[in-house]
Q: What sequence folds into this?
């Protein structure tokens, strides 16, 4: 028995160091540090907290990859701690349903550049044709039940592996689930993930009890569980299962199911769906800091009604995943045993799934942004694709390598013949169904404190919580990437015309309306931040 196994057997939580030792991947599976010139950059795939994600081809192996650029928000501070955490964790993990970090690539500034310029680092992962959010936005894609079951099984298997290894993902959402045209789903974006110090989930016992506090600055609002919206810090692996429930509902109906515009509104939508919480349905409710200001009007919940067309199996699994009581919310292991997967129609096998036109959430964002600035196109024209027909107007903008990109960089038949000038029309050209994307986990500086849609009952809670008190220009070190990031088309995204006027001024407003007095809020925040800092001289720490 290894040291880590005997620790497990003795019921002691595994230290991050023994976890790292027990999970070392074979050396051959990680290249190390290559030069950016080893990759031919083909186009832009996405934008996130770190900056941009590009599609590229390895000049050595010919394989398609994604390059995720690590932005140094403040060069003086060096490599962002959050990126370090993501890299460390991804290097340790090895599972078919977890995105694999294959290499790191470095781009050195040209000799003529400012001497203070630092090299740019890229994370290299296998290229995936879609993210689930992009795929679901594509109106030509309708997922069948066997397909949904297949993706759900893979998602739950990936999550079971993470939780069994004491890792909290903390940003479960459709845009972080990557899918390829071989039918494989992989969990991505470990920027908020960390080592979990509680017990691993036990069969039949949900997520169990939390044993220590963590920062509550996690999970994108639409996927955030009620206990986090009410500021529970002693949370468990079950926060990720709530996100799985939201993703499952999203796959069934084809769009996000809980699209709150503020924390209070998010809770109202949850009560509409799952019923208002009681001591029975959410034990410990009264002890949650966020419960004090809450007086929702009683309702039963309409989950059964809303999802009735998907059958009793789907409804039953959804109820288990969206359980208000986080302790008894189903865990990944038990969810995989749910009758939903054992009753017909049976889950498809990945290799049986159809392949689709590549779809990334960024395509949709890009289309909506361009649509607001471009005049209507003539029939058969190039609306939303810019004068170069390159689909992203990026070709000459000095991305990785600063060399500009080849024409047709968005050719979905990559490697095949060049597309006709207007062939690569993103699916989103035909779609206007979805509301703007939700804010990222800790982009609270943008204060989306609008009144809830449909009145929402004038809840005093209806503000965005966790408003950082620091200035946007001086972000604190640990949360910088979340703080600085522009939401993927969400209300915080300054580039979106419809939200342009709600940035700094609203941030100030919502801060002043936060339920906690500023000093308490700052103290809590600092405590969380300190707790999440890596030990000064301790072992490598997957956080
Ligand atoms: N390996 C990949 N293959 C294809 N697309 C990818 C890959 N990795 C990332 N992407 C695309 O880039 C987007 C952003 O990636 P990711 O979530 O890892 O970055 P991030 O900076 O952490 O984003 P965010 O902060 O918005 O969550 C994804 O939603 C996806 O569309």
A:
């Amino acid at each position: 028995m290894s040291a880590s196994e005997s620790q497990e057997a003795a019921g002691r939580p595994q230290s991050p160091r023994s976890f790292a030792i027990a999970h070392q991947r074979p050396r051959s599976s990680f290249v190390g540090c290559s030069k950016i010139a080893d990759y031919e950059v083909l186009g832009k795939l996405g934008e996130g907290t770190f900056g941009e994600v590009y599609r590229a081809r390895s000049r050595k192996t010919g394989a398609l990859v994604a390059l995720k650029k690590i932005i140094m928000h403040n060069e003086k501070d060096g490599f962002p701690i959050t990126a370090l955490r993501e890299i460390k964790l991804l290097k340790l993990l090895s599972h078919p349903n977890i995105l694999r970090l294959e290499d790191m690539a470095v781009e050195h500034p040209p000799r003529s550049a400012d001497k203070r310029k630092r090299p740019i680092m890229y994370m290299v992962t296998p290229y995936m044709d879609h993210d689930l959010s992009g795929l679901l936005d594509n109106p030509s894609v309708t997922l069948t039940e066997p397909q949904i079951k297949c993706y759900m099984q893979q998602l739950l298997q990936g999550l079971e592996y993470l939780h069994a290894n004491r890792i909290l993902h903390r940003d479960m959402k459709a845009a972080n689930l990557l899918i390829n045209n071989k039918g494989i789903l992989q969990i991505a974006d470990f920027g908020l993930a960390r080592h979990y110090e509680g017990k691993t989930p036990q069969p039949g016992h949900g997520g169990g009890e939390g044993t220590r506090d963590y920062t509550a600055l996690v999970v994108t609002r639409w996927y955030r569980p009620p206990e986090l919206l009410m500021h529970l810090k002693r949370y468990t692996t079950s926060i990720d299962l709530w996100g799985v429930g939201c993703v499952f509902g999203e796959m069934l109906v084809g769009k996000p199911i809980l699209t709150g515009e503020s924390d209070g509104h998010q809770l109202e939508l949850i009560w509409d769906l799952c019923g208002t919480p009681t001591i029975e349905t959410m034990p410990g409710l009264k002890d949650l800091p966020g419960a004090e200001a809450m007086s929702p009007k009683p309702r039963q919940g309409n989950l059964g009604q809303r999802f009735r067309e998907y059958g009793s199996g789907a409804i039953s699994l959804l109820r288990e995943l969206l359980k208000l009581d986080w302790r008894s919310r189903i865990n990944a292991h038990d969810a995989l045993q749910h009758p939903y997967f054992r009753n017909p129609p049976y889950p498809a096998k990945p290799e049986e799934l159809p392949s689709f036109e590549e779809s990334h959430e960024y395509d949709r964002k890009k289309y909506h942004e361009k649509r607001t600035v471009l005049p209507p196109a003539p029939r058969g024209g190039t609306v939303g694709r810019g004068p170069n027909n390159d689909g992203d107007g990026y070709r000459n903008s000095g991305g990785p390598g600063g060399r500009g990109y080849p024409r047709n960089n968005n050719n979905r038949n990559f490697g095949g013949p060049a597309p006709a000038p207007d062939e690569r029309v993103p699916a989103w050209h035909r779609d206007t169904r979805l509301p703007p994307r939700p804010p990222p986990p800790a982009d609270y500086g943008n204060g989306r404190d609008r009144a809830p849609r449909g009145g929402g009952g004038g809840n005093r809670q209806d503000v965005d919580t966790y408003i950082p008190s620091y200035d946007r220009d001086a972000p604190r070190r640990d949360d910088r990437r979340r703080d600085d990031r522009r939401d993927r088309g969400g209300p915080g995204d300054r580039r979106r015309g419809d939200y342009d006027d709600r940035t700094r001024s609203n941030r100030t407003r919502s801060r002043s309306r936060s339920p906690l007095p500023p000093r308490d809020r700052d103290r809590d925040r600092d405590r969380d931040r300190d707790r999440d800092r890596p030990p000064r001289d301790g072992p490598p720490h997957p956080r």
